[in-house]
Amino acid sequence: MKGTQIILLLVLAIYSVSSQRCRPGWEQYGQSCYSFGDETVTWIDAMQYCQLDEAHLVHINEPKEYEFLVNSMKGRRITVAWTGGSERLHRGSWEWLPNGGLFGKYEKWFGTEPAGPDEDCLAIDQGHSYQWMDMSCTLSYRYICEMKIPDETE
Ligand SMILES: [Ca+2]
Ligand SMILES: [Ca+2]
């Protein structure tokens, strides 16, 4: 009986350690940690703030991740949030900066977006059903940083 209790405690301890792999203030979803910036800043500043935290502006790779982000925005009453999506480097081809690769596998643009000739940065916008909008990178919004959790088998 005692042995069983010890094993149970061990299992619980390991579980609680492995289930909290994000820094305080960061939220885990899947294999990433996310933080939701409190300030409203330009896209460039948002990118730099994420990098100062050894993270990057969020790369949205699949529908479940997008749903998590929208729910988190709703919970925090964030109306517009910058993501790492941009066509700043190559006009006409959207990619996840930095080093996240081209769009293609999964996209959630609103209506006929992206359509703005001077709108090179991607935001999630409550006013457009939280779908993706290309916006002017110089506008100031909240922002979402993402940090991949290192693969423990490596
Ligand atoms: Ca991601
Ligand atoms: Ca637009």
Structural overview:
This protein has 154 residues and is an alpha+beta fold. The protein has a single domain, classed as Mannose-Binding Protein A, Chain A. 26% of the residues lie in helices and 23% in strands. The protein has three helices and eight strands, in the order αββαβαβββββ. Strands 1, 2, 3, 4, 5, 6, 7 and 8 form an eight-stranded mixed β-sheet that branches. A hairpin with a 2-residue loop joins strand 1 and strand 2. The radius of gyration is 18 Å and the shape is elongated. The mean pLDDT is 91. One calcium ion binds next to loops. Keywords: Disulfide bond, Signal. This is C-type lectin domain-containing protein. InterPro entries: C-type_lectin-like, C-type_lectin-like/link_sf, C-type_lectin/snaclec_domain, C-type_lectin_CS, CTDL_fold. It comes from Candidula unifasciata. Pfam families: Lectin_C.
Bound molecules: calcium ion
What distance lies between the first and last C-alpha atoms, to the nearest angstrom?
37 Å
Question: How many beta-strand elements?
Answer: 8
**Biggest sheet, open or closed, and with what strands and sense?**
8 strands, mixed
Any idea of the CATH class? Alpha Beta
Q: Mean of the pLDDT scores? A: 91
CATH topology: Mannose-Binding Protein A, Chain A
The geometry reads as elongated
- Series of secondary-structure elements, N-terminal to C-terminal: HEEHEHEEEEE
> Which structural class is indicated by helix and strand composition?
alpha+beta
Going by CATH, the architecture would be Roll
Helix percentage:
25-40%
How many H/I helical runs?
Answer: 3
CATH superfamily: Mannose-Binding Protein A, subunit A
What number of domains?
A: 1
Strand content: 15-25%
CA radius of gyration is 18 Å
Unreliable stretches covering 5 or more consecutive residues? none
Keywords: Disulfide bond, Signal
Protein name: C-type lectin domain-containing protein
Signal peptide: 1-19
Domain C-type lectin: 29-146
